[in-house]
Design goal:
The protein is α+β, with helices and mostly antiparallel strands. Helix content is 41%, strand content 18%. The two termini are 20 Å apart.
Length: 135
C-alpha cells in the first residue's frame, strides 16, 4: 500500500553532518521524497508537534533540544512507508536499536536519537498538515 510518512532528521544528526547519509538510506528503500525543508523551530511550534507530551517529565529537555538548531523535516512516499521508515530508524533508544539502523549508527541517547518518524497513518497525516500545510 502506497502511503505518506513524516520524518525529521533531528538537530544532532544535522549538526554532525549525517543528513545526507540518512536521506540516502530512506531513498535506498525506494521511498520518494515529496517535501523537505531545513528549519529551526520555536518552542511554541515544538509544543504543537509534541502536544501529547507537554505534561511529561521528559518534555522540557526534548523541547530545548528540538529548538537548539536546524533540523530537516520531510515527507516520504512509498509502499508501506511508515513501517519501512520505522524499521530503518530502529528503536527509540539508540542503545537498544538493532545494528545497521539509523539510531544505532547515529543516535547518542535520550532525545538525541537522530530521527523522528510518524508511528501511524493518523499521526503522519497530522504531522504533515502541521509541518507542510500546503500539501
Amino acid at each position: 500500500m502506497t502511503e505518506r510518512t513524516f520524518v525529521i532528521i533531528k538537530p544532532d544528526a544535522v549538526e554532525a553532518g549525517h543528513a545526507g547519509e540518512i536521506l540516502a538510506r530512506y531513498e535506498g528503500l525506494g521511498l520518494r521524497l515529496e517535501a523537505l525543508d531545513l528549519r529551526t523551530i520555536t518552542g511554541e511550534f515544538s509544543d504543537l508537534h509534541y502536544a501529547e507530551h507537554l505534561e511529561r517529565d521528559f518534555y522540557p529537555a526534548l523541547r530545548q533540544f528540538m529548538t537548539s538548531g536546524p533540523m530537516i523535516p520531510m515527507v516520504l512516499t512509498g509502499e508501506n512507508a511508515i513501517a519501512q521508515v520505522r524499521a530503518l530508524n530502529g528503536a527509540t533508544d539508540p542503545t537498544k536499536a538493532d545494528a545497521g539502523t539509523i539510531r544505532a549508527d547515529f543516535g547518542e541517547g535520550g532525545p538525541r536519537n537522530a530521527v523522528h518518524a510518524s508511528d501511524s497513518p493518523e499521526s503522519a497525516a497530522a504531522e504533515i498538515a502541521l509541518w507542510f500545510p500546503a500539501l
